[in-house]
Specification:
- By secondary structure, the chain is of the alpha/beta class.
- The chain has two domains: 226 residues, no CATH class; 244 residues, no CATH class.
- It contains 24 helices and six strands.
- A six-stranded parallel sheet has the order 1-2-3-4-5-6.
- α9 packs across α13 and α19 packs across α21.
- The longest helix has 26 residues.
- About 1% of the residues have low confidence.
Length: 551
Amino acid sequence: NLICQVEIFGFNLARLDIRQESSVHEAVIQEVTEYLQILPKPYIEMSEAERTEWLSTELPTRRPLIPTELPFSERTCEIINTFRMLRQLQVEFGKEICQTYIISMSRDVSDLLEVLLLAQEAGLYDPATGASSIQVVPLFETVEDLRNAPRVMNDLFKLPLYRAALAGGYDKLPEESKSELETPYLQEVMLGYSDSNKDSGFLSSNWEIHKAQKALYKIGEEYGIALRIFHGRGGSVGRGGGPAYKAILAQPGKSISGRIKITEQGEVLASKYSLPQLAMFNLENVTTAVIQASLLHTGFDEIESWNEIMEEFAVRSRTHYRNLIYEQEDLVEFFYQVTPVQEISQLQISSRPARRKNDKKKTISGLRAIPWVFSWTQSRFLLPAWYGVGTALQEFVEQAPEEHLKLLQYFYLKWPFFTTVISKVEMTLAKVDLQIAHYYVRELSKPEDKERFEQLFEQIATEYRLTRDLVLQISGHERPLDGEPDLQRSVQLRNATIIPLGMLQVALLKRLRQHDTGTPGVIHSRYSKSELLRGALLTLNGIAAGMRNTG
C-alpha cells in the first residue's frame, strides 16, 4: 500500500499553496530597489506602465538583484526567505509539493511580474530559459478587480516571457499561430466571493464572477491558454457557499472544461469529510458535476437578452445594498451594537485578524469579509446573502407583472445560473429568524439609539418580506425549501435548537458590554469579564454549529 501511495502521490500527498497580498510584494520591490538605487524614482511612485516595462526588462536579466545577506526590514526578509524556502522544498521533495503562489488583491500585470521577479531571485524562475517552477495565480476579489480581470490577463498573455513561463521555457513556445495550439498551457485564476459580496451584495457579486469567467475563458482561448478557475468560496452563502453540485453546474459555458479548484472551509470539513463514506460521496458529487458541466452546455448563458436582464438585476441590487450598507449613516453603529462582531474578533478560529491592518476605526470597508458575514449570521439576519435581491426582482416584475413573473419562473426552470442564485437565497431565507434578530436589536441597542435602530430594522425586515415573497413566487413553493423537504426539516430542527442559545448570547453580550463601559449593576459582583467573555464565545461556537455556518 505504501509503495502504491508513493507512486500516486509522491512524497508530498497534498500540494501546498502559498498566498500573500500584492501590496506586500510591492513593498519588498520598493525596499530592494531603494537599497540598490537602480531606479530613477521610487518604485511606488512609478505608473503601472513604467512598472511593467521595468519588470519585463529586469526579468530576463541574469545578474542577481537581491544580495545573499539581507540588509532589509524584517517583513521584507520574511518574504524573500519564503521564496528561498519554497525553492528548498522543491529541491528536496520535487516541484509538485508547492507550485501555486496566489496573489491576493491582484489589480494589475505588475502584481504578477513582481512575484515572478522574487521567484527568479530564489532560483524558481530561470531568466536564461524562461522556465518557471511555480505558477503565479492572481486573485481578483472586489467588483472592480473582477471587471478588470480580463484586461489584466490579456495584457499578461501578450508578454512572451510570461507565455514562456507557462509553457516551460522559450524553446517550448510553438512557432504556429497561437490559436492553433493542440495542447494549451494552463493558467490558474482565483476568483473571490467574499469581498465582492461585501462590496456590492449577493446578486451583484455572483453576476460579476459569472461574467468574469466568461470573459477570461475567451481570452485564454484566443492565446491558446487553458484556464483553471479557482473558486475562493466560503462555507456561508454570503461568501459563495452552498451545494457544490448545483454551483458547479451553474458555471458559464465552457469555463470548466474538466478543471475546477474550490476552497473548502474548516467549518464544513467535518460534515463533508469526517467519515470515509461522506468523503467519497462528496468527492463523487463534485466530480460528477464537473464532468456534466464540461460535456453538457445549455447555451442559456449566451442569450443576450437574458444577460441584459441579469445586468439590470445586478445594478438594482447593488444600488439598494450599498444604499443601506455604505450610505446609511446609522448602519455602522447598528452593526457594531446589535451583532457580536466585537466579540467574534476574539475567537481563536481565524487565519487573519478581523480588521485590515490600516483600519483602526469602526468602518465597514476596513472589516474583513469573514467577521462581516459571521456577525450577521449569529444575530440571524444573514443579511449579506439576500439583501437587495427582492428590490431588484420587484422593480422588474412591476414593469409587466404577469409577463415578467412568468419569465423569471422560466429562468428558474431552464437557466442553471439563475436557478442556483434563487435556490441559495431561498435556503438563506429559511435560516433567517427576524424575531430573534429583533430581540438582538431591542436588547443590545443603547437607549439613545433605540428609535433610530428600530427604523433600520424595519427597513431590513421590509426587504426580507419582499425577497421571500418574490422568491417563493418564482420557485412555486409555499414555504422556503418546499422543494427539498429533507433540508427543510434539518433547518427547522436546527433553527429551533439554537433559539435558547441566541437568548443566552444576548444576555451575556449585554452584561459583558456593561462591564466594559462600567455601567453600574449587580452583575459585576457575580461574574468577571473573562467569565462573561468565555460564555459569549461558547455561544458563538454553539450557534455556528447549529447554523452550520461561521463566516
